[in-house]
Write a structure and sequence with these properties.
InterPro entries: KH_dom-like_a/b, KhpB, R3H_dom, R3H_dom_sf, R3H_KhpB
Radius of gyration: 24 Å
CATH architecture of the largest domain: 2-Layer Sandwich
Keywords: DNA-binding
CATH topology of the largest domain: GMP Synthetase, Chain A, domain 3
GO molecular function: DNA binding; RNA binding
Strand content: 15-25%
CATH superfamily of the largest domain: K homology (KH) domain
Number of domains: 2
Shape: elongated
Protein name: R3H domain-containing nucleic acid-binding protein
Largest sheet: 3 strands, mixed
CATH class of the largest domain: Alpha Beta
Number of strands: 6
Organism: Thermocrispum agreste
Structural class: alpha+beta
Length: about 190
């Protein structure tokens, strides 16, 4: 076999006949946002079906609401008296159920899901608490100039705190440690 036949660009990297050297072309897909929203709606539908079957198996009542917010599918379950059991202490059962739901969606779509699951408004309420925690910690660090380490948190919780800290002038935040003991540290800007 000749060297030209072995090398995709011909002998010694030369361009073979019929191949033209061109600059890359930027492709603009006007349907990208629509396609993304369609995928997120589909993720929500798949997750809703999965969770509905789970609620039926457990004989729990709950209304499932599907939405798309900030580039991710959001699934909320409200209304049942037993739903607190699906939240668990500090949201641990909710986190595990969210991960199982994401895996169920990925099994159908072949795409890793970033969907957010909320049960009985727990995540919404927790977000409010964490925003206040982040804001007050940031204000205290700005006032004292001393770093503050917060308690270990889940990735969701840390993100909410980081966002709240970022809204306060004169301070910044970073995460330190390893899961499950990873925590936010609020520090004064230099």
């Amino acid at each position: 076999m000749s060297e030209t036949a072995q090398h995709p660009l011909g002998a010694h990297g030369a361009t073979p006949p019929g191949v033209y050297d061109t600059d890359p072309v930027e492709v603009i897909d006007d349907d990208y946002e629509s396609d993304t929203d369609d995928l997120l709606v589909r993720e929500g539908d798949i997750a809703g079906d999965y969770l509905e079957r789970l609620l039926d198996l457990l004989d729990y009542d709950g209304d499932i609401d599907l939405d798309v917010e900030a580039g991710r599918a959001v699934v909320s379950i409200d209304g049942g008296k037993d739903l607190d059991k699906l939240v668990g202490p500090r949201g641990q059962v909710l986190e595990a159920l969210q991960e199982l739901t994401r895996l169920a969606v990925q099994q159908v779509t072949g795409v890793r899901s970033r969907l957010m699951l909320d049960i009985a408004g727990w995540r919404t309420n927790r977000r409010r608490e964490l925003q206040e925690l982040g804001r007050s910690a940031a204000e205290q660090v700005a006032k004292t100039g001393k770093p503050m380490k917060l308690q270990p948190m889940t990735p969701f919780e840390r993100k909410v705190v980081h966002d709240a800290v970022a809204a306060v002038d004169g301070v910044t935040s970073e995460s330190e440690g390893e899961e499950p003991r990873r925590r936010v540290v609020v520090i004064p800007e230099k």
